[in-house]
Fold each of these.
Amino acid sequence: HCMIISDRGTRSCTDRHAMLWAVIGLVATSVTSRASTTTSAGQPTCSTDEDCSLLGVCHRDTGKCLCDAGWAGQDCGELKLLPVERGSGYNLTGAKPPVSSWGANIFPAGRNEDEWHMYAAEFENNCDISKWSPNSAIVHAVSVTGPTGPYARKDVAVPPFAHNPKVVQAPDGTWLMYTIGVPVDASKLANCSTDTVTGAKLLQRAEAGKSNAAPSPPGRTPGNLESNVTLFTARSIAGPWTRFGVVLGPDWEGTWDEDTSNPSPLVLPNGTVLLMYRGCVVGGGGCHSEYIGIASASNWRGPYTRLGSQSILPNSSAEDPSLWIDRRGNFHFLMHYLGPNSGELVARHAFSRSYTGPWDIHVKTIPYTTTVEFTDGSSTLYHKRERPHLVFNKDGVPVFLVTGVVAPGNQSGYAGLSYTLIQGVRSH
């Protein structure tokens, strides 16, 4: 049993409403605890807060980590994930014909506690994830039943080719959507009901359909539509969105980030924008040696400047960063880990006291895996789980993890029906 305490009075609530009120900043009794001890008695496990992944503090007397709300484990690196209700999130893979999506951001609408907005990458013409380039568009979906959905598609915010949306709000009230991609003529997209054109030939056709808005890369990226970070702006979370332009293009041929993708913006209170991204070397028909970098700008209009000439984690191959700052001023990001022996252990967490580094990764605990438990008592081992995005409440406590997943039985290599999963985080 729980009670919601707010300026509207005190009343009982369901678990879903307790989670909802917590994320929009109304105080629930279930989120009053700021930290918890998560290690058993025994030998000390920490001597500094870094030993707790900066997701908690090291108790100087016991040598144990006191983990922040939402986190657990010997080094506080594991998300306390809740079971997922089937049919929630944004899942149209059961439609006739099916529709696939791949990760999203979600936001409360305002005073209506049950209305939430989502911006997701969705693949046009009933294509699966194998045709993410060039068929991805950014769609706007809405839930009227709370943050976990289900969400219903409302409109197309940015037509193809646009992918990997990350939405934040600037101090001046402007909503900012960072994406990858360039405009491509609709006639050049794959039609997965009738089209047999695949792979390199499809990309060549899409390349021929690029509009003049496409950036001119300084390096070699033939047939590559995603090597840029493009910004769109809006006055309302509901849109409409206006194209501002490319704010971070591909780097020069031969650099570690000659292909620049996967933006993750963080807007600081003074308006400074930190823009984390994935870079890689292009060659042999694909992207190799994928690593994480950071650019910055004094305000969202730019210019954006890369931080140094090397990756911030040169020994950890990864993509899909999701950057945030905690209540103590430390910096963190989740990532899709691409290193050896990743398997089900697809996620990693990195942390630093400064965005300039040094950055560190602990592997005693893993933020999440490809296995998801459901409220009906079942579980699913997903073929893929990528595009992590954490949703925080006003106190900086993580309350939802959003990822893109490919279900087992629907995949072959890097193909398959995909959807967007929203999983709650236990905050006490």
Amino acid sequence: SASLSLSPLSVCHCVACVCVCVACSCLPLSGGGGVSVCAVQLQSESSIMESASQPVAFPLLSTWVDYTYRPCTIPYRFPSDPPHQPTSTELLWIELFRKSISVFRKHAEQDESVPDAPIKAAKFAQRYGEMLDDLQTNPESHGGPPDCILLCRLRELCLRECGFMDIFKKFKDEDNAKAISLFEDVVKLADNIQDTTERLEHLIKGVFAGNIFDLGAMQLAEVFASNGMSFLSSYEKLLSRPWVIDDLEQFKLRWPRKMWKKAVIFVDNSGADIILGILPFARELLRRGTQVILAANEMPSINDITCSELVDVVSKLKDANECLLGVDAHNLLVVSSGNELPVVDLSSVSPDLAYLASDADLVILEGMGRGIETNLYAQFKCDSLKVAMSNLCR
């Protein structure tokens, strides 16, 4: 049977991965009222979409007296651990991130937008390797002690210092184009299911099937080979329920009885994940009258979709009447989360997201980086849903 490992075995974000288990969790808390805000409705209003304002805490985090928000799921060290000595958990995670260097170097070497890319890719590999060596010797170096957030941040820092802003850009664009061509067929499959709770389960499984392609850049040709049937194949091959954390039945019971006014979805990857997984589910929420806020990264990181890329994708999927295959999408909003990593710290989001999310009554965290490696135990003031695949082979 499948199991979810909250150990270094589930460390993000290497290209070669096999997704072997799923986790879905729902925290049934009460939500607040709704004020419709359309400030970022697929427009290029740079004052909203690309704000340089200081980050703020996500306003829907629980404020219970006995609750303290900690973004990272795994305890990398305890107060009793010597501060200048790395823990066994830290050492394991450092080594797993070290193993990803060759993959990132390879993609950096192929970045045609960067002059002398192979030389600069080698510099990146050397610099990041040295940082990991430093953390291995002294866990308090480079802003440590290390966790998945710091290890991801240092990797992005090294890439950008060497001139690499988006080494997966070419693959993301190809991935998005192929997924867009399949969007209508995937949506029609869901629409043909008459029972609303059965359709909900189908859509949630579609989110899992899309999320399998977390950093699938090395497998894109296979993923969409033969008219895209590999997405449907991935859907059919999902692990049978019950999943490791499986509150889907609880969510299905609430679905026909509660109408959420506004949902905030922290989205994950480009391509099949956002276009064939999240957007059909978001469309179903829109059909029910829920305003949907899609919160995407401000800056590129691996194959995660950025805010500007998502604006472009949605504009291509909407028709002249602002509909997504017959569903009014005027209430589908896109906003920058302020994030630039494949994981997310909800104590630091963009002010624009905080403003739009302040009256939401449903929060959805999608993807391993946002819903398992970070925020698995995050508590909110409103209903929340965490939907993620765990990639155990990295």
Amino acid sequence: MACSTTARATPVVARHGAPAARRSTQNTRRGVTVPTRAVTAPSSASPEVVMLGEDLQMLSAAVAAAGLTEALAGGASLTVFAPSDAAFTRMCDDLQLSKEAVLGLDNLADILTYHVVDGTVTSADLRDGEVPTLNTRFALDIKGATVNGAGITRADVTVGSLTVHTIDTVLFPPWAAPAKVLTPQQVLAFEGWAPEVINGRLAMLGFLTCVVQEVATGHSFTQQFGDNFGIFAAQVQLWAFASLAPSFSSNEGYTANPFTMEASRTWQEVFKGGPWGPEARKIFTPEVEQLNGRASMVGIASLIVVETMMGHALF
């Protein structure tokens, strides 16, 4: 069941002020136009409860459910990159979660604080690079007018001491996203990514091993296969399991699909500080792996045909 945002959200910020005067402007930076709105309240007015925003009801409810109301209402200057109700709805659909399930997540506070930056950061202040968050463990990645790839749909809304930028995606810190519910049948579907990727990896391993062993022993591929069937079967199972295991992980960020791995915050964190950095990943891309896998599958088939016609090993 997808998230429903029709119910009135829980108030999250209590400030002094009468109904706020609003003005609409347009903020353009790096060629991207972002609607902006400033909301102010006279300090002499009577106390009033202020919502994060009309289209931020789900976020307001999540803040209350996570016990973060006082943190946001404490008067400290904070900047919130606030997922819209539409963003929460898409997230619920993608992860097959209900609104109640989202509000009941054990790590909800960690997820929400990942959207909050200390101090006042306007859209004009945004610069490419990492920005620390109240999550403390993980930073946001700012590029142009995007935050972790999420677009800013409305910027510079002032709610009490908060500066709110509405974004079109719910952000998850590494190791925080619940798993998408996938069955083995879905992962191994013929039209999916897994069959060709796994067959390609096995073909690359098999072709290289076969050539090396032919040079060393003079045995053909079919003879090697017959003499070492047990070892071959064990390797197939091991490599298939290693390729598929992340798909059945309890964490959505550990995607096993090489074509979506680069966009995963979890894998980006895993790659940090290791030899498999951004430059290396630009060279050995999923497309390159796919091409090598296809070439290896053709190579093995051709080798079997040629050696069968010759009656002996090619190498």
Amino acid sequence: MSFSSILLFSVVLVAAVYATAFQQQPSKRCNHAHQYRRHPSTALFYASKDECIAANKKYLSRKLGLTKDQVQRLQTDGLPNILTLEDGVLEERVDWLKKRLKLKNKSQIRKIVQHQPHVLAKLSSNLAQKIDYLQTRLLLNDDSLRKMFLEAPHLIPCSTENMEETLNWLQTRLRLDDRQLTKLICRAPYTLGCSVSENLEPTLDWIQQRLHTLDEFTISRVVQKMPRILHLNIEANLEPKFDWLQHQFNLDDDALGKMVQRSPTFLGLSIDTWEVKLDWIERRLDLTDQDLSKFILKAPSILNCNIESNLDLTLDFYIDALGNEREAMRLVTKNPSLLAYSLEKRLKPRLQETRDAGILIDAGCLRRIGQYTDDYWKMALSFVRDHQELGIIALP
């Protein structure tokens, strides 16, 4: 064979090898099933595991705004790791999740990435089916769907079957229609991640036995007002709180049930927090222990209010409006619920409307400003305006 023939054969052979390499090479992504050292001639077309990690860290920090420590914490042991995903895959999955949940900004995306990184590491069609199921089953619009997953990102890995079981149990046991069920879940979406047999059912059974003076319909209303009551531990939370309330306010079972029925949300606070607020109310309003008990039983929702940003400022509002501290104290003591109304959304705007209408501002007027519903307030204000020529200057 001549030299030229040998040279031609060599060129053809090399060309064939490179052609095969180009046909078989995937895009520049990590292949974790084959972590071997590649031949230098083909290294250009592969990204090593370290290169993928570096690329994903760069994406998380530059595009999503995660700090170095936050990125480092994503390297979890025993779970799929999003940092080792093939180059470009993480960004594709984040983009899909962003579009499906209509996430609006980086902080919303970061929240899900930080709380459920392993889900993005093994994203499957099941997640799309799960999101579709929840949106259809609960008749959620896009805003409600997004809010649900942002408030409870741990729902992402929950199975559709388990969530369906929980929804069916809640609807049957609490006798909820579709609208009530949706409202309950939107208030406490993490309820969908609770086990019926291990958490929800035993807790509801205990509540019904402990508050035995309340019927099933009333218990259902309590849970609808505060779904989180089903998440509270019985021995460490609910039982000691009920015992403390009965001892502190000298309540029998019937009075305890009525107190919880009136405003169950205060059960989400600690006993220590209750004690601080009770001390402030007793001292600020100069109440005896007996007066304090009557005061709280009339409006237990006051225990939900913050002292500095709610109670103190609201009391000052009534004092300033009346110009008489003693009269304001007497008004609030007789009507405890007046301390629980919103200053910015109700009290201040209505007081201004009252002044603009030339209405006499006294204790009775301030009580109406606080306690009238929106519809009744509008009717009362309109009545005064329409009859001012007759000398009417007080709210009906």
